[in-house]
Amino acid sequence: METGNGQGAGTAEGEPVWIGLPPGLLRMRRLLLVVWLGLLAVAVGVLLNLFAGPGWAAFALLPLALTAWGWVMLGRNWASWRYAERADDLLISRGVLWREETVVPYGRMQLVEVTSGPVERHFGLSSVQLHTAAAATDATIPGLEPTEAERLRDRLTELGQARSAGL
Asked: How far lies 81's CA from each of 52, 54, 95, 155, in Å?
């Protein structure tokens, strides 16, 4: 889904250059879905078989059906996330049913963090979190490769300092 390198302010027509999230985030989320719902299916099947009888153990198929539905939904959600660096602000777009686009002006950024929990680190991913004075405009870009997250953090910090100094 990557549509550009994110280094410029946009295309010649004035459209932003959108960058999609790496496929590692989708792999991580799908693996977690399969592991947790697979364990739930086994637990439900064993418990129902022991306490209610073998006929009731068929209800263990419900978590498996939920896994199939979740697999598709995770793919749609992952494909909806993208971000673009423009001359004066950062755009973050996400959402399947309800599209949400966040615009964060560089001059309003107070803090740019790169975070990575244990599962994200295992999959080689990091998230970039942007903090502004207004808590409602805080934004996150999840599942980036660490080098891209650090590059984005450094660039946004640099642009934020340059814009706030000009106020």
From this structure: 44, 43, 7, 20
